[in-house]
Design brief:
This protein folds into two domains: about 160 residues, Response regulator (Rossmann fold); about 160 residues, 3-Layer(aba) Sandwich (Rossmann fold). Helix 2 links the parallel strand 2 and strand 3. The chain starts with 13 loop residues before the first helix and ends in a 10-residue tail after the last helix. It is globular, with a radius of gyration of 20 Å. The strands form two sheets. Strands 1, 2, 3, 4, 5, 6 and 13 form a seven-stranded mixed beta sheet that branches. The chain has ten helices and 14 strands. About 35% of the residues lie in helices and about 20% in strands. The protein is α/β, with parallel strands linked by helices. Keywords: Cell membrane, Lipoprotein, Membrane, Signal. Its main location: membrane. It comes from Actinomadura rubrisoli. InterPro entries: BMP_lipoprotein, Peripla_BP_I, PnrA-like.
Length: about 350
């Protein structure tokens, strides 16, 4: 049954964050306010990764899950975005701020929140916490949930698509930041390409930045330059796993009339790449939206269970898009590969 809809969006400034986060931790969580019929409405606090809502990739997928919760459940929300190159203490302060203000549940979007979220959760035992992309797929705490994804499996399928569609026999990969999470995308992509077409040449992977510089997830100019380099190397299909910086990749590849492969969200109809949409071959879909909604719903229904949940091909937690019809002719081949992965006949590597 659909319950009443309540929406409350609040913009939080950095000054407010600093001021409020200095409050003492350990405040008893309020599970929500009475909506007038004796029921409590959930108050969801969500902290985005770098790029925030509007990145048309990873964060927007999380935002879609939050939006579904607003539509289908009785919730109010507050959103806060991360800052580039911020210290971990800022992530902790952001989560602590939300918990202190009575938001329950609290969600951290991105692997970089894992340590801070587990730490803060200890001080708020009555508050439920979710970290999306839990680092190494590990969390601790009776009130903590970790969502993790088999990005390598979805990337395997788009890698196969890239190899099957390439005319030059050369394809490329561009990662945002050289961290273990993103190298999973590279590993799956390369393995899928070589499985589909053993003679394919995958150009050396290009990473836009090295940690602790995380501009590789937000600066389209970096994606643009990297794409030019791989195009010059003969690649006619390029897959990016670079968040907002990947917009630069798609635009540059599209301008060259070559194939681009999007990531996290279905990027075909996104406004930022409208001029290049006909050159988006497919996107590797990572259903962060489903993970966020599943978690909120579990708290609403009192079915929350701590620990981690893996989203992979077997439960459609990852996959690929068909928008635009560019890979309709090879869908049967991709589906056969998917079936073999789900059946355990193909094991997809997580390291290049």
């Amino acid at each position: 049954m659909r319950r009443g809809l309540k929406i409350s969006l609040v913009t939080v400034t950095g000054a407010a964050l600093t001021l409020s986060a200095s409050a003492c931790g350990g405040k008893k969580a309020d599970t929500g306010k009475d909506d007038g019929d004796g029921k409590k409405s959930l108050k969801i606090g969500l902290a985005f990764d770098i790029g925030g809502r509007g990145d048309q990739s990873f964060n927007d997928s999380a935002a879609a899950g939050l939006d579904k919760a607003k539509k289908d459940l009785n919730v109010t929300t507050e959103e806060i975005s991360a800052k580039p190159d911020e210290p971990d203490s800022d992530k902790e302060s952001r989560l602590r701020l939300l918990a202190n203000k009575g938001y329950n549940p609290v969600i951290g979007v991105g692997f970089a929140y894992t340590t801070s979220l587990v730490k803060v959760a200890k001080d708020f035992p009555k508050t439920r916490f979710l970290v999306v992309d839990a680092d190494q797929c590990k969390v601790t705490g009776a009130n903590v949930k970790g969502a993790c994804f088999s990005e390598e499996q979805g990337s395997f399928l788009v890698g196969a698509a890239a190899a099957l569609k390439s005319k030059t026999g050369k394809i490329g990969f561009i990662g945002g930041v050289n961290v273990p999470l993103i190298t999973k995308f590279q590993a799956g992509y390369e393995a899928g390409a070589k499985k589909a077409k053993p003679g394919i040449k995958v150009l050396p992977a290009k990473y836009l930045t090295q940690p602790p510089n995380f501009d590789g997830f937000k600066n389209p100019a970096l994606g643009n330059e990297a794409a030019k380099g791989q195009l010059d190397g003969g690649a006619d299909v390029i897959y990016h796993a670079a968040g907002g910086a990947g917009i630069g990749v798609i635009k540059t590849v599209g301008a060259a009339k070559k194939w681009a492969i999007g990531v996290d969200s279905d990027q075909y109809n996104q406004p930022a790449v409208a001029g290049a949409k006909e050159f988006i071959l497919t996107s590797m879909i990572k259903h962060v939206d489903v993970a966020v909604f599943d978690f909120v719903e579990s708290v609403a229904n009192n079915t929350f269970q701590p620990g981690t949940k893996k989203y992979d091909l077997s439960n459609d937690g990852v996959g690929y898009s068909l928008t635009g019809g560019k890979i309709d002719d090879i869908k049967a081949k991709l589906d056969a590969l998917k079936a073999d992965i789900v059946a355990g006949k193909i094991t997809v590597p997580t390291k290049p």
